[in-house]
Recover the amino acids of this structure.
């Protein structure tokens, strides 16, 4: 697609529902008794993959605009699939559903697209095997068949701070014999824990560093309202902070503290972001308003990465507009996402003339150097977050640029361009 120099972004938008919470609402709805209704469900390709997988496991799911109704079958009511379970592009679907299927009395074969088939699955195969499931896989990648087993509870310390791995172990532990205790090296997003607390409060207890799962408890269907996705809001928070003259309000954004790392970094940079209209249901939310401001450089290290893991490409863009050298380290996990996001951000930002250096575990960016467009053919590498980051970057380029496979935005934010057009008016 072709773009030209942009005007300030001004106005108010309501962004789509949170991707992580939308996936989990289907999973917990499916394994509960009774009906679960989900409002403001994210109808993006990733969440539709999760929805189709549960239909293939025999669950009745009805859709009406952004409302979804799930008729739960309980933990023992899922049916053996007669087709391959297609996870599309979604790491979250694959890893969380692997945990659930690890305890089911049948075999399920999971497949995915080219990008997902390159992503590591050993991180769920190892703990789930330790609990009693068995896996056939292509060198610990998709396609992968999980043979559900009779699971035993265990004590497990996560080797990486990953909400997907933690959630896979939680979903398996609900079906195990005896309790499971999970220790986290540093806190990752806790949507699974909060949802479990809502659907089945007796199943979970937690302290600052440990989660204990008690199997065999009842699950009751719920009415879930999904807040806006802070990882989608982040594109507008960054756009508002870097495009001169901008002021953007984003309504009803999820501000779970395990997800708000981007707000902390913006604050340290001197960006102006205000919060109003706080709500607190299963997940806290607020309206966020950002205004253009001068930005100071920042440093982000390993301990902050889990709270902003999907926002690292956007942090690189913020750094490229800051008045100094910024450094991101401890981010090697970025190499295992839809693309190698450290390598791809470096490659694509260099085309914009941004001073960026790739580290084994991060990035160094000098925002003081003016940008010079060196190559107008940008490439999303089929990665939704790269596509949207490059689109926001292109707002500051006064020549047309192309973004190859921009359609990747459909993975998490199908209405991204509609919201951009609204803010440009
Ligand atoms: O649990 C989740 O919903 C997610 C966890 C994160 O992945 P990791 O668990 O691999 O860090 C994140 O990058 C992904 O977009 C969504
Ligand atoms: C990494 C992401 O998602 P997933 O792991 O579910 O593919 C993402 O949305 O940036």
């Amino acid at each position: 697609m072709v773009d030209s120099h942009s005007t300030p972004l001004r106005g108010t938008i309501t962004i789509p529902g949170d991707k992580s919470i939308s996936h989990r609402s289907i999973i917990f709805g499916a394994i509960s008794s009774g009906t679960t209704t989900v409002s403001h469900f994210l109808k993006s390709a990733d969440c539709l993959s999760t929805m189709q997988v549960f239909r293939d496991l025999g669950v009745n799911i009805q859709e009406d605009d952004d409302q979804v109704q799930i008729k739960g079958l309980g933990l023992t009511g899922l049916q053996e699939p007669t087709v391959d379970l297609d996870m599309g592009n979604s790491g979250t679907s694959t890893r969380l559903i692997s945990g659930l299927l690890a305890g089911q009395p049948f075999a399920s074969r999971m497949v995915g697209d080219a990008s997902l088939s390159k992503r590591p699955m050993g991180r769920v195969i190892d703990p789930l095997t330790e609990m009693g499931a068995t896996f056939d896989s292509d060198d610990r990648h998709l396609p992968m068949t999980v043979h559900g087993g009779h699971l035993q509870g265990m004590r497990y310390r996560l080797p990486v701070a990953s909400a997907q791995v933690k959630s896979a172990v939680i979903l398996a532990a609900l079906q195990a014999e005896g309790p499971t205790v999970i220790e986290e090296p540093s806190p990752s997003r806790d949507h699974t824990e909060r949802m479990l607390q809502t659907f089945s409060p007796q199943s979970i207890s937690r302290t600052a560093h440990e989660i204990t799962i008690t199997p065999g408890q009842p699950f009751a269907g719920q009415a879930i309202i999904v807040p806006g996705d802070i990882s989608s809001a982040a594109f507008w928070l960054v756009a508002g902070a870097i495009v001169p003259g901008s002021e953007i309000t984003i309504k009803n954004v999820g501000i779970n503290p395990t997800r708000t790392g981007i707000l902390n970094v913006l604050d340290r940079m001197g960006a102006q972001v205000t919060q109003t209209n706080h709500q607190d249901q299963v997940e806290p939310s607020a309206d966020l308003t950002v205004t253009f401001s001068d930005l100071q450089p920042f440093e982000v290290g390993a301990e902050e990465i889990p709270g902003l893991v999907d926002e690292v490409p956007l942090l690189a863009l913020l750094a490229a507009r800051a008045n100094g050298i910024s450094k991101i380290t401890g981010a090697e996990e970025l190499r295992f996402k839809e693309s190698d996001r450290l390598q791809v951000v470096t490659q694509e930002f260099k085309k914009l003339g941004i001073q960026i250096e790739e580290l084994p575990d991060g990035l160094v960016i000098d925002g003081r150097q003016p940008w010079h467009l060196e190559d107008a053919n940008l490439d999303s590498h089929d990665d939704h977050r790269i596509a949207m980051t490059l689109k926001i970057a292109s707002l500051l380029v006064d020549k047309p640029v192309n973004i190859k496979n921009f359609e990747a935005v459909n993975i998490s934010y199908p209405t991204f361009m509609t919201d951009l057009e609204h803010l440009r008016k």
In short: Residues 46, 90-92, 310, 337-338, 385, 412 surround phosphoenolpyruvate (ligand 2) (CB under 6 Å). The chain has a mean pLDDT of 97.
